[in-house]
Amino acid sequence: MRRITRIATVGVASAALALTATACGNTSSSDAASDSKEKSVAIAYDIGGRGDQSFNDAAYAGLAKAEKDLKVKGNDAEPSDGESDADKVQRLTELARAGNNPVIGVGFAYAPAIKKVAPKFPKTTFGIIDDSSVTGENIANMVFNEEQGSYLAGVAAAKATKSKTVGFIGGVETPLIKKFEAGYAQGVEDTDPSVKVLSQYLTQPPNFDGFSKPDLGKAAAQGQLDKKADVIYAAAGLAGSGSIEAVSAAGKWNIGVDSDQYMQAGLAQYKDSILTSVTKDIADAVFNLIKSVEDGKPQNGEIRYGLDKDGVGLTDSNPAYVKLTEVTAAVDKAKQEIVDGKITVKTAP
């Protein structure tokens, strides 16, 4: 796999030059690389980049699977610190010009860039994870029912807590992360109304440090531990690793997010504290889009992954979780009721 290093933040003049060059190219020259015989695909990471043990790593797993199973060449591009939409436009343009198809933006922050770049490369499929606001014939929107998986986490937390206090830490207060909070709080409330939920966001837009700085997650978790929380669910990307560290040191329960964090090598020293994880099948979503392009039937429009398709869920990798039969039984019951339509999960707190 070819790894593209972090693209340095460009100045206004450089960004304008890059955009002008793109705009001046006609459709045939833009698509020339797309007609290359070499099959290559690319993903552009979100804040935190590869190695976040969470969101971005899940996308990378899908790319790696495509390399192995579909025999395509994979390219991945890192974000730069404090980057602008112009930087994302430059990155996606370079990936498309290089002949990658599809080109996938990992995270809703890529929406403005995909809106600008996709029309210039009509033969290239652009995928975006966690956003359905930008649309087009060559755009695939991979979205998830995060609130459903988070509801199951709330059920598990309410059953596992001994202090009757649990915590939620959101990286950045955006509508997407509020879905995690809403489902979690509802799951706790429906399971045991006497359990208190402490909720905190690390940063507010446009400050997205809450997805990238572990120290912020660690401090927030410590604050909730001090208030007697003994189960903490962090939806905060790389910053969530700081929360996991603090909760583990206190001997309390973590609930992971996006990937099965119990199985993540980078979190191995904390794994015994990770009761379960809310997963989003980002890996399969990425793989499925790549395969659709390889099959000549590229996906487009909204592609939704929920509990009914195992697109979201709760892991059982930790043997300690499996042994908590009261917890697992309650989670299994809640899952079936959501799938059957007996429980409707809120998408806002």
Automatic annotation (TrEMBL):
Query: Which keywords does this Swiss-Prot/TrEMBL entry list?
Result: Cell membrane, Lipoprotein, Membrane, Signal
What CDD domains does the record point to?
Answer: PBP1_PrnA-like
Topology in the lipid bilayer is annotated as: Lipid-anchor
Domain (ABC transporter substrate-binding protein PnrA-like) spans 44-343
In terms of InterPro entries, this protein maps to: BMP_lipoprotein, Peripla_BP_I, PnrA-like
Q: Where in the cell is it found?
A: Cell membrane
Question: Mind telling me which residue stretches traverse the membrane in this protein?
Answer: none
Predominantly, its location class is: membrane
**Signal sequence extent:** 1-23
Listed under GO cellular component are: plasma membrane
State the source organism's domain of life. Bacteria
The family annotation for this protein states: Belongs to the BMP lipoprotein family.
Task: Write down what this protein is called.
Answer: BMP family ABC transporter substrate-binding protein
Q: What is the lineage of its organism?
A: Bacteria, Bacillati, Actinomycetota, Actinomycetes, Kitasatosporales
